[in-house]
Amino acid sequence: MTEQRIPFSIREEARMGLQDWWSDRFDTWFMNVLTGNSAQTDTRYTGNNTATAPTSDHQIIANSMTEATLTATSAAQFTLALVDQAVLKAKTSTPVLRPVKTGVTNANFVMFISPEQHYDLRRNTSTMEWADIQKAAIQGGNISNNPVFTGALGLYSGVILHESYRLPRISSTGGSTVSRAVLCGAQAACFAFGRGYSEGRMDWTEELFDYKNSLGVEAGCIAGMKKSVYNSADFATIVVSSANSSAAEAANGR
Predict the structure, then answer these.
(1) What pairs with residue 229 in β-bridges?
(2) Which DSSP string corresponds to 75-99?
(3) In which region does residue 195 sit, left (phi positive, over 0), alpha (psi from -120 to 50) or beta (all else)?
(4) How far from the centroid of its chain's Cα atoms is residue 97's Cα?
C-alpha cells in the first residue's frame, strides 16, 4: 500500500539512504583512526578498534606548544609553514613516509585539514601564504584550472590538500578549540572486511511488517580499520594540531 501512495521506490530510497549512512560511518572511522583520536572511546566510530594516539615524533603542534595549552593566537593558527614542517618530518622520519601514487609519474602526500584550518589558511594575508600563491598562479596564466575558482584546495609542496569536517576538535585549557590535521603517506591505515564482504558488497536484508504493508531494509558488513603502527611508531601519518582562530569559531557559530 505504501508503494502505491508515492511516486518513488521505497526500496531504492532505502538503498541510497543506507549507502550515505555507511559512507559517513567509514569516513568517521578514517578520520578518528588516522588522527589517533583516543578521546573517542566508542569503537563504533573508530573502526571497531581502539584509536591509537599519535606517537610524539609524528606530531607537530603549532607554536611549539601542547594541544592542551594552545591559544587562538596568530602563531598557533594553521599556515603553510605547518605543511612544510609536516613534509620535512615525513621525509626524514624513520621509516621515511612513502608518498601516494596519483598517476603514472606523480607521487604526492595527502593531507586532510578541518574547515576551520581551511578558513584560517585562506584568510591569512601574510606574504607567500595561500592567497599569494593563488594570485601568482592566476597571473602566470593558470586561470580556468585554478582551484580558487572551483572550491578545491589544491596542491602545495607535493601535498594534495583536502578538507574534512569529520576531523576531531579538542578543547584546550586556554579556551581554544584545536583542530587535528593529518598528512598521510602510502599504507597509512588498514581497512579489512570479513569474508564475503567488501566496500561494494554489503549484507542486504528486507523484511515486511504490518501484514506486508511496510518494508524494512538493512545493510551491514563485518569490517574494521586500524592505523598502521610498526615498532611502536606511526608508519605513514603526521598529525598537525593548530588552534582555530576566533574568526573561524565565530564564523561557524561557536
Answers:
(1) 234
(2) GGS--HHHHHHHHHHHHHSSSPPPP
(3) beta
(4) 18
CA–CA gap between residue 78 and residue 244 (Å, rounded): 8
- CA 183 centroid distance within chain: 9
Beta bridge partners of 60: 240
Q: b/e for 76-104, b at 16 or more Cβ within 10 A?
A: bbbbbebbebbbebbeebeeebebbeeee
Distance CA 198, CA 114 (A): 28
**Residues belonging to the chain:** 254
74 φ/ψ angles, rounded to the nearest 5 degrees = -60, -30
What DSSP assignment string belongs to 170-234? EE-TTSPEEEEEEEE-TT-EEEEE-TT-BTTB-EEEEEEETTTTEEEEEEE--EEEEE-EETTEE
Contacts of 123 (CB under 8 A, 6+ apart): 245, 247
pLDDT per position as a tens digit, 92-147 = 988 899 998 876 567 889 999 999 999 998 888 775 666 667 666 666 665 555 55
- pTM across the whole model: 0.84
Name residues whose C-beta falls within 8 Å of residue 92's C-beta, 6 or more positions apart in sequence: none
